[in-house]
Fold:
Amino acid sequence: MAQHHSAATIRPDAAAQTKEGKIRAAHLLVKHRDSRRPSSWREAEITRTKDEAISIMLEYEARIRSGQSSLGDLAITESDDSSARKRGDLGFFGRGDMQKEFEDAAFALKPGEVSHVVETASGVHLIER
Structure:
């Protein structure tokens, strides 16, 4: 996955996409039993609590911030989202395309930045722009 998802070097039309108010981001999702859909490609039935999901995500965040791993590397094996096979890459999206909490956090990031834990109805996320 590219270092900076919103960079024009990713795709020739990336500059035009960002001018239209779209950004590119990747994420790592850990679901919990109260998530909108408490199942994933990794687990048929997710039983962990929200607090357990946050604890797991805080460990992932520490690994990313220390340089021990990248969000993309962790997403491949640890994300509960189907985007895991694409290193968490969600492609380009604009305002109104994602859940509000996710969107607000993603749009607040500068290219190359990684968010802190973001909670949505889907679960808990780390987002990299």
Strands lie at 23-30, 89-93, 118-120, 123-128. Residues 1-17 have pLDDT under 50 and may be disordered. The longest helix spans residues 50-65.
